[in-house]
Structures are given as C-alpha cells and as structure tokens.
Amino acid sequence: MINKRCSGKGGESSADKGYEEVRIEKSKNVCNVCEDYAKRQSAKPVAVMCCDGACLRGEIARQAANILCHSIAPEKTVRICLGGAFTKNTGQRSLVRNAARVIALEGCFVNCSSRMMNGVIKGLEPEVVIADRLYEFDRTMFGVDEMPPEQILAHARTVARKIADSL
Ligand code: SF4
User: Is 52 helix (H, G, I), strand (E, B) or coil?
Assistant: First the structure.
C-alpha cells in the first residue's frame, strides 16, 4: 500500500506539475529608505536582480551585480533587493515590473532570481545571465572559502564587464 503522505505526490494535480506554491506572510513593515531609493532609481532603464546565493557562484554573481550597478554602469542600471522585491509588492517589485529591460544575474543554472520573480510578476521575461558560464574555474568548488577573495573579485569583474558590454 502506498503511503501518500510520504510519496511526495499526494494531492498534486496535473495542473500543479512543474510548480511549487508558496504562501508568503504579508508584512506591515515599510522601509522608508528603501522606498525612497526605489523612487529615485525608477527612471533607470535596466533593473538588475541577482540571486545573491551564499555559495561561491552566488557570491561572484552578487559582487558582479554590485560592480555593474554601482561602478561600471550606475547611470543605466538599478540594483534590485531580491528579497524585498519577491516578498513585498512595493517599490523594489515596481522597479522590476516597470523597467524597460530586466537582467536576472544568476550564480548558476538553478536560476533562482528569475524563477522567484517570475512567480510574483505575471509575464515577466528577464534576460537570464548565468554568471558561472562567463569565467573559468574549478567547477568542483562550492564554498566561498574555497577561492581566494581576490580571485572571486576578479571573476565578478569579468562577469560585470561582459554584461556591461551588452548594455
Ligand atoms: S542561482 Fe545558484 S548560486 Fe544563485 S541562489 Fe540559486 S542555487 Fe544559489
């Protein structure tokens, strides 16, 4: 006899296949400095959302997003706070929704930032950039502690420059 609770398939309809449903608690908390930032940045044409993963690949993507948005192309790009944009329908999500161009900078092929934001903005079609395809490294590495910080920065700069060339 199959125990449906343990099979992982109980209650899943065919319409749900391929998707996970999440229930996010609404927050009454508003970060005014974040909302002010979103208003100030709203005229910029390119929104850059990054997966911000905690592993080596996510860290390189995170640093690349910061270099791109704050050093190389600050006049064209706005760096999105992914957690704020995903969990709250306020300024950060509006930056993504209204941008002429949205770049999803992913640490790896799991594509977390684009999948997250596709779940909260209907019809969103970000340009997905998989950062770890843009630099050479030992692909058996996982943690941020497995690569020297200066090497991480060098790879982040490589990724940022390659994206900047497409702007
Ligand atoms: S895209 Fe990859 S590196 Fe980024 S959060 Fe997801 S699993 Fe981690």
Answer: coil
